[in-house]
Each structure stands twice: as C-alpha cells, then as structure tokens.
Amino acid sequence: MNKDISNEKANYVGTGMQHKYSPTLLVMSSEQCVSVCEWCFRGRIFEGKKLEDDKVADATEVIEYVKTHPEVKNILFTGGDSFLADREYLKKIVLGVNDVKHLVSIRFGTRAMVLEPSRYNEMKEIFDLSKKPVYIVLHIVKPEEITQELVDITSNAYHMFLSQVPLMKTVNDKPERIRGIFRKMSEGQIDPYYVFQCRAVEGNEVYALTFKEAYEILEDAKKELSGVNKRFRYVMSCDAGKLEIVGIDGDKAYLRYHQARDPENFGKLITAPANAVWLVEGKPLFLKDNKFVH
Ligand code: SF4
139: helix, coil or strand? Predict the structure, then answer.
C-alpha cells in the first residue's frame, strides 16, 4: 500500500517546491480543493498522511529559486487547487517572476474552475498581472462537466486552456464518454493535453485499468475523433518520469519517456506487461484481488 506511488518525496527541493523535470518547477500553492476527488493521487494531503514538504511553498523562496535556476522555464501552480490559493500570495509570486528572462510561462492547475466556472473571473486579475503567458490546466473527468457556462468563459477568454483527464474504471472508461469529453472541449476551445493512467495509490484500486484496457478504450474513442480533438497524449506520471503509452502488441505495452527524472532516458522506449496497471522503479504493478501487487 502506497500513498506516494510516484515518489513525489524525491522531487522536493524545499517546502512545497518540486523540481522533477528540469524545465518545470511545481509549486504547492494551496492545500484545499472545492471537493475532494475520490481518485486524488495526493489524497494523502486530505487524510492526515502528508509528506514533510507537502505544504504551501513560501512565496519568497519560490521567487528566489526561479531566479537562481535558469533551467526553470515554467512554474506549475498546483495543490490542492491553485484557484483556491491565497490571492496575495499568487500575486506576489507572479509579480516577483515577471522580469525573470529565462522563465517562459506559468501554469495553474484547477478542478475548481470546472466545477465552478465563474472562479475564472475572480482569478483573472492575477493572470492579467503576468507578463508571461498563462495556461490554465483543467482537470476534467466527465463530458457533462463541460457546461455551457464553462464553454462561454473558456471560449471568450484570452488565456489558454489545456485539459487533463484521468481515465478511470466506472467513471469514464467508455469510448463514447471519452469522445464526449474531447468534443465538448472543442466547443470551449480547450486544448487536448493529457489523459492520465489512474495512479495506483492506495484507495484507487476500484478505478484501475490495465495499460491494455486503457489503451484500447482511447484508441476506440479516437476512431471517431478528428485530428484536432485527439491531440491528447495518454501518459503515466510515475517515479521515473512521464511515460507515454504508445502501443500494445500482444502481451506487451510499449511506453516512451515523454519527461524523465534522469535526462538520459528522454525519448527512450521501454516495454511492460500489457496487463500491468503501473510501474514502480521499473517493476510492473498488477491489480489482484482488488489490491496492487508486484
Ligand atoms: S482537484 Fe486535484 S488535488 Fe484536488 S482532490 Fe481532486 S485530484 Fe486531488
């Protein structure tokens, strides 16, 4: 049983700051969400099982870290939900990094805006302070979450919206549900970005799909999606990096490093059992009797 299956502990470079991939600094900006998702891969935060550094990062430390690390090209505000972060805190960081030349963009991860779209209007003044392009990454699970209200806001906004969709058994594991999500995103001009393999954290057993099951659902969904609508990548964020599941052949899954903790692995192709649900230190994890086992 593991509450930190992707070994986020190893990514911390300071309280609330994770630096796993050289171009991206992940900043814990809030420990709250509008509602706690049952499938949350950081459920430990809400269950009293936090890692030592699972806390909101200090704004001054974030600014200093970005300034002194030229390899950091973007900041990803996460949490919890970045839309629930303290506004003055966000403003301080956004203004503090505005003139850092090597910083290219800023991302805000949120599910709050999906559930309550008008939250965008409250956050807009912060985004408008940024001299860097702002991307808002929406955590979407079902087609019906993309309401007319959300579409009206995202399609009329001048900030950029991306999607991240965890693929989960019983929640959205039907090709027509996936098609529905990506077609509706198109109405809202939300760019397809990632579909995530459901993280094998303790408590997520009921949502787990094997690589083969998930791959086949997505390929089936893609058959009736236009090229524009199927630009998403099906990925797994595990301890070694972000692996794109690019194919299944018989009992083998083929995965390619899209991001890598060890830069030597970039682009490398590896195989795993097609009936596995996750990889930990390169070893496959399977679902057996409703438990994750090696
Ligand atoms: S919005 Fe994200 S961080 Fe918050 S409970 Fe859901 S999955 Fe977890």
Answer: strand
What are the Cα distances from residue 110, in Å, to 39, 68, 97, 113, 201? 15, 27, 21, 6, 20
Site to probe by mutation for ligand 1, drawn from 29, 82, 111 as the one with most ligand atoms within 8 Å of Cβ, is 111
Taking the C-alpha atoms of residue 292 and residue 252, their distance in angstroms, rounded to an integer, is: 19
Angle at 93 between CA 90 and CA 95, to 5 degrees: 105
Listed residue (208, 210, 179, 245) closest to 38, CA to CA: 208
User: By the 8 A CB rule, do 133 and 105 touch?
Assistant: yes
> Which residue is associated with the tokens 């850092």?
100
Q: Is the whole-model pTM more than 0.70?
A: yes
Total residue length of the chain: 294
Beta bridge partners of 289: none
259's CB contacts (< 8 A; 6+ apart) are 20, 21, 241, 242, 266
How far apart CA 91 and CA 215 sit, in angstroms, is 40
- In what order do the strands lie in the sheet containing 105-110? 12-14, 17-18, 24-28, 74-78, 105-110, 134-139, 160-167, 191-197, 233-238, 241-249, 252-260, 269-273
Residue matched to tokens 């699970």: 141
Tokens 């300071």 belong to 14
Residues within a 6 A CB radius of ligand 1: 33, 36-37, 40, 42, 79-81, 111, 139
Q: How many CB atoms lie within 10 A of CB 261?
A: 18
pLDDT along the chain (294 residues), means of 10: 87 97 97 92 90 96 98 97 98 98 98 98 97 98 98 97 98 98 97 97 95 98 97 97 98 98 96 98 96 96
Q: Which atom of ligand 1 is nearest to the CA of 112?
A: 1
**Per DSSP, which regions of 144-250 are E strands?**
160-167, 191-197, 233-238, 241-249
